[in-house]
Amino acid sequence: MRHKNFAISRTLGAIALLSVAFAARADTPIHLSHDAGPDATVVVRNVKGDVHVTGWNQNRVQVDGTLGGGAKPLQITGDTRALEIKVESSGGSGWFGNSDNMGPTSLDVHVPHAAALEVHVVSAPVDIDGLDGRSITVGSVSGRVHLGVRAGAVKVDSVSGDVDLSGSARSFDAQTVSGDVQAATLSGNANVQTVSGAVLLRAGSMDKVNLGTVSGRIQLDGAVAPDAAWKIDTMSGDVRLNLPSVVSARIKADTFSGDLHSDFGKTVSSEHGPGEHLDTQIGAGSGTITVNSFSGDVHIQRGGH
User: CA-to-CA distance for 248 and 243, rounded, in angstroms?
Assistant: First the structure.
């Protein structure tokens, strides 16, 4: 009888352990709220899952969604000037912790529309809409980043995720390895660097432009601001610039083995090997445009904006 009772106890213990493990894996609904100033700084950190941030006309931060199994209970920490929402594994210290045993967390966050926002993720896609604050910063490894915002400054660092700015920014800084970068309505300054990702930008009047890629193509449709300084470099990627019919700039372009075509000025072949060169002044020449390509083709077109 003792053996039978012992077997029953072991079975019940196993069932209890399985129940605990199942509860740890189950998703937990999230509904949190915290007062916030209209221009507060809000930081969101999530390892995997997804993050959606929306700006609204309320002076508080609200978080809804589901917390992945194996994560610590979620809190909004800080005060009305600076708040943080951080998803952490219950199985280790630090931000990552033992994230392999943690299920994906889905965060739906509402923040004051003028807030400064930072979002840091690993494999979570990020969508940000309705913000017009002073700055938005996103750090991602493999998740796609979509920004439907109007901000003073936007900065995105990504490894393999695409970056899409469908809103506007006066200063746009994006770094990727294999992800594509697209922006629809830029103005002011742009610094975009990729390895194999494409860079596709549409802009108004641009002051400082610094674009670089190894093998991805670059296309920029934009106007040259007075005293502008544009610099575009590529190894094997093609470059296409679409400029207005009326331009005031000094344009210098060089290719080592790629073709060079321009509606402004006259291209000449290199004297000491393959490649072509362009050096021309359009109008008063108040701005400067410099393009360097190793093996990619360069097209500079008139009337494209």
Answer: 11
Rounded to two decimals, the pTM is 0.87
From 189, 191, 150, select the one nearest 171 (Cα to Cα).
189
Q: 275 near 217, Cβ under 8 Å?
A: no
Rounded to the nearest angstrom, the gap between the alpha carbon of residue 294 and the centroid of all alpha carbons in its chain is: 27
What is the secondary structure of 228-293 as a DSSP string? EEEEEEESSS-EEEEE-SS--EEEEEEESSS-EEESSS--EE-TTSS-EEEEEEETT--EEEEEEE
* 3-state DSSP assignment of residue 173: strand
Phi/psi zone of residue 134: left (φ > 0), alpha (ψ -120 to 50 degrees), beta? alpha
Please give the Cα distance from 250 to 295 (Å, whole number): 23
Q: What is the pLDDT along the chain (305 residues), one digit of tens a residue?
A: 544 444 444 544 444 443 334 334 468 999 999 999 999 999 999 999 999 999 999 999 999 999 999 999 999 999 999 999 999 998 755 544 556 678 999 999 999 999 999 999 998 999 999 999 999 999 999 999 999 999 999 999 999 999 999 999 999 999 999 999 999 889 999 999 999 999 999 999 999 999 999 999 999 999 999 999 999 999 999 999 999 989 999 999 999 999 999 999 999 987 776 789 999 999 999 999 999 999 999 999 998 54
